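[Q] Does anyone have a clean structure-token version of this?
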Amino acid sequence: MRMRSIVSAAVVSAAMLGAPSAARADWLLTPFVGTTFSGSATNEHLTYGGSLGFMGAGIVGFEVDFGYTPEFFQGDDEDFDLISDSNVTTLMANVIVGAPIGGDEGSVRPYFSGGAGLLRSSVADADEFFDVSNNFDIDFGSFDFWRATGGVTFRF
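[A] Here you go.
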């Protein structure tokens, strides 16, 4: 009798977990890799990171985005390189706006994301005499660059 109760409970639990829900909230994990260019980025540099987002049943969600770009301030000239180590790190909080194609059951959801965040740079020279780490103030004209990335989103 006890074994029958355990099997029945397992079958009911599996059926409840496998049943579709009317409205679905999704967590989204997107690792990405890409390049920086333009503005203060004198050369293109590898950038990578990831974002964690949440989309409810509506069209608005939120996202936290972390990006890291090593060797951001280093040039292509290996013979005359005064900088031994540099990087730029970004941490953003974004609002996501996206509508599924085909209604709530659509498997494709184009979206736009935008927000504000923190940018930290670090530069050290070859002799480690000059070492600067800086969090940028709210001064939109002093430092800028673009980042183009691609990634795969995992929904859970």
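[Q] Thanks! Anything notable?
[A] Confidence is low (pLDDT under 50) at residues 14-21.
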